[in-house]
From TrEMBL, chain A:
Record-linked InterPro entries: Ntn_hydrolases_N (IPR029055), Pept_T1A_subB (IPR000243), Proteasome_bsu_CS (IPR016050), Proteasome_sua/b (IPR001353), Proteasome_suB-type (IPR023333)
Protein known as: Proteasome subunit beta
One GO MF term attached to the UniProt entry: threonine-type endopeptidase activity
Localization: Cytoplasm; Nucleus
Pfam families: Proteasome
Catalytic activity from the UniProt record: Cleavage of peptide bonds with very broad specificity
Family under the similarity heading: Belongs to the peptidase T1B family.
A Gene Ontology BP annotation from the UniProt entry: proteolysis involved in protein catabolic process
The protein's assembly and partners: Component of the proteasome complex. Component of the 20S core complex of the 26S proteasome. The 26S proteasome is composed of a core protease (CP), known as the 20S proteasome, capped at one or both ends by the 19S regulatory particle (RP/PA700). The 20S proteasome core is composed of 28 subunits that are arranged in four stacked rings, resulting in a barrel-shaped structure. The two end rings are each formed by seven alpha subunits, and the two central rings are each formed by seven beta subunits. The catalytic chamber with the active sites is on the inside of the barrel.
Keywords: Cytoplasm, Hydrolase, Nucleus, Protease, Proteasome, Threonine protease
Automatic annotation (TrEMBL), chain B:
Pfam families named in the record: Proteasome
Function noted in UniProt: Non-catalytic component of the proteasome.
CDD domains: proteasome_beta_type_4 (cd03760)
UniProt keyword annotation of Transferase present: no
Gene3D superfamilies in the record: Glutamine Phosphoribosylpyrophosphate, subunit 1, domain 1
Organism: Dovyalis caffra
Record note on quaternary structure: Component of the 20S core complex of the 26S proteasome. The 26S proteasome is composed of a core protease (CP), known as the 20S proteasome, capped at one or both ends by the 19S regulatory particle (RP/PA700). The 20S proteasome core is composed of 28 subunits that are arranged in four stacked rings, resulting in a barrel-shaped structure. The two end rings are each formed by seven alpha subunits, and the two central rings are each formed by seven beta subunits. The catalytic chamber with the active sites is on the inside of the barrel.
Coiled coil: none
Xref: InterPro entries: Ntn_hydrolases_N, Proteasome_alpha, Proteasome_beta4, Proteasome_bsu_CS, Proteasome_sua/b, Proteasome_suB-type
Entry similarity comment: Belongs to the peptidase T1B family.
Protein name per UniProt: Proteasome subunit beta
Keyword vocabulary terms for this entry: Cytoplasm, Nucleus, Proteasome
Localization of this protein: Cytoplasm; Nucleus
Any GO CC annotation of this UniProt entry: nucleus
């Protein structure tokens, strides 16, 4: 807390005021609640006609799986998608923010977004926060200059690669890519290789699991294959069903449909642009 | 085993007493990968000994035969591996002196190594190694691992160190019973190639060892072919001038 007579308005960025107090509390033994990390396997590869991205669907909070089927492939632009690993809030916020910036840029220039634009916007933001925004991303897309695949690390460095993996399962997925990748793959071969790499992450890494999401981006066309593979189905459901002990007694049930209370005007004017 | 210097009451130089303990490894070997195949065991390791982040020694043999029926491969501290070989040579010699027609098999050696490693860890003075032991005796194949804290188990395919993260996924997906020798070597080479690309302490100089009922063969050192000619590596920033 600065000792000054004039109150400055809060500037952007993090305020590190509470760090000393937090350090004192953790010395006394207080444990912070764990962040919801995605503990992930995300991959991307460049094939003959474009880019294929893949991701698993498990989100973990420490040792617990908090979301069995989350979406890790985020929309950036009609021709650009981004997979995110690391802290879930950070990846969501950063990709949403850059996606809006790209939309504004598209309106301004009247052209399709380029992958390098998304790359530079993300990289600038992450470097600015010196690695505290814990988002490791695999960015892929096809624009007028061709297909591109990049990885972005939380501190802001980037790589341009023919195939890339990130997240805790990246080593298992990279083992599959390094042994089986070649240039000029067809669409089906590419999807098969991406699925194999994600499955390798799912079955060999504890932080990844559940299903496989795949996104295929080609010139002028994209396909988001949500839950392309479900290699972990729930095979046993108890036939007896579940009975929970009675808590609050239900005395009366009365349902009031809201339509009577709200006036619905059919075929009104469309909202003005 | 302990180095007994004079136990001083107030020692400013040594920590608590005159006893030295292994705190961290100095010269280390990277991963070893092994698998069971139709006729026996195949094991592969590179020949590098790293001194911290320097690749200091490039002709370290990390796979050695033990007795008539076993092969041992080690990753971790090289000096501790040499010590373990001394203990094993002593055991094999004693066994030979019995002259009773029987000889130490892989299961026995595995058990002995587990005891040695676990006891050292209990004294807070571990032998800083992860050992892979493979062998064939009377038609029975054996492949097992012992870590520096005494964890031991048997499996059909094993990898130490970084190999656990990069080679095991490949082995889990592609290993099956009754691999032929050629298939086994191809699978091991696949794993070693991935490790060569992605492990910073790997050298491109390997030995593959094979043990069957007939005996041990350790190959001459050789190098693997690597491929770096991807389009994207030629000019990575073609689409983004000035980027990296």
């Amino acid at each position: 807390m600065a000792n000054s007579c004039v109150d400055f308005p809060a500037k952007g960025g993090f305020s590190f005021d509470l760090c000393k107090r937090n350090a004192m509390l953790s010395d006394k033994g207080l444990k912070l609640p764990p962040f919801r990390k995605t503990g992930t396997t995300i991959v991307g590869l460049v094939f003959q006609d474009g880019v294929i991205l893949g991701a698993d669907t498990r989100a973990t909070e420490g040792p617990i799986v908090c979301d069995k089927n989350c979406e890790k492939i985020h929309y950036m632009a009609p021709n650009i998608y981004c997979c995110g690993a690391g802290t879930a809030a950070d990846t969501e916020a950063v990709t949403d923010m850059v996606s809006s910036q790209l939309q504004l840029h598209r309106y301004h220039t009247g052209r399709e977004s380029r992958v390098v634009t998304a790359l530079t916007l993300l990289k600038k933001h992450l470097f600015n926060y010196q690695g505290y925004v814990s988002a490791a991303l695999v960015l892929g897309g096809v624009d007028c200059t061709g297909p591109h695949l990049h990885t972005i690390y939380p501190h802001g460095s980037t790589d341009t690669l023919p195939f890339a993996t990130m997240g805790s399962g990246s080593l298992a997925a990279m083992a599959v890519f390094e042994s089986n990748y070649k240039e000029g793959l067809s669409r089906d071969e590419g999807i098969k290789l991406v699925s194999e790499a994600i499955c390798s992450g799912i079955f060999n890494d504890l932080g990844s699991g559940s299903n496989v999401d795949v996104c295929v981006i080609t010139k002028g066309h994209k396909e988001y294959l949500r839950n392309h593979m479900l290699p972990n189905p729930r095979t046993y459901v108890s036939e007896r069903g579940y009975s929970f002990p009675k808590k609050t007694e239900v005395l009366m049930t009365k349902i009031t449909p809201l339509k009577e209370k709200v006036e619905v005007i059919e075929g009104g004017d469309a909202m003005e642009e | 085993m302990e180095s007994n210097s004079e136990t001083k009451q107030h020692s400013l130089l040594s920590s608590e007493s005159g006893i030295q303990r292994t705190q961290y490894p100095y010269v280390t070997g990277s991963s070893v990968v092994a698998l069971k195949y139709k006729d026996g065991i195949l094991m592969a390791a590179d020949m590098g000994g790293s001194y911290g982040s320097t690749l200091r020694y490039k002709s370290v043999e990390r796979i050695k035969p033990v007795g008539k029926h076993s092969l041992i491969g080690a990753s971790g501290e090289i000096s501790d591996f040499q010590e373990i070989m001394r203990y094993l040579d002593e055991q094999v010699l004693n066994d030979h002196m019995w002259d009773d027609g029987n000889s130490l098999g892989p299961k026995e050696i595995h058990s002995y190594l587990t005891r040695v490693m676990y006891n050292r860890r209990n004294k807070f003075d571990p032998l800083w190694n992860t050992l892979i032991l493979g062998g064939v005796k009377k038609g029975q194949k054996f492949l097992g691992m012992v870590t520096m804290i005494g964890v031991n188990f048997e499996e059909n395919h094993i990898a130490t160190g970084f190999g656990n993260h990069m080679a095991q996924p490949i082995l889990r997906a592609e290993w099956h019973e009754n691999l032929t020798f050629e298939e086994g070597v191809a699978l091991l080479e696949k794993c070693m190639r991935v490790l060569l690309y992605r492990d910073r302490s790997a050298v491109n100089k390997f030995q593959i060892a094979k043990i069957t009922e007939e005996g041990v063969t350790i190959s001459q050192p050789y190098a693997l072919k690597t491929f770096w000619g991807f389009q994207a590596f030629e000019n990575p920033t073609a689409g983004a001038e000035g980027s990296w």
